[in-house]
Amino acid sequence: MTKQLLCRLLFIAFASASLTVVSASSFASGSFSKSSSGSLQNSYNHGKSIFYKKIICKKCPLPKASVTMGVAKEVVAAMDSDKMLMNKLSDKERGAVTHYLKKRYKLN
Question: I want to staple 93 with a disulfide (CB 3.0 to 4.6 A). Which of 9, 66, 82, 89 is the partner?
Fold first, then answer.
């Protein structure tokens, strides 16, 4: 084999391996959705983020709570009545957290 042919083969092998790694990692990210419900997926992810950052963090209303279906129901019920949650979260944030909990724990 000539040196030029060997270089071409190595370049092709490297390029195809790189494309495989890049495409596999983009599909494995977990937060990408090709569905038409992109805004619902964003609401779910936004609600999840707020829930863990503002409701069950160390200095939050339910610090490091073990989240069960029962806890999720209580939080959803408290979203529009608990003064602390209403002051801590905006209407949009409360809606996103409610959406996340209802979808995650299959609440009605």
Answer: 89
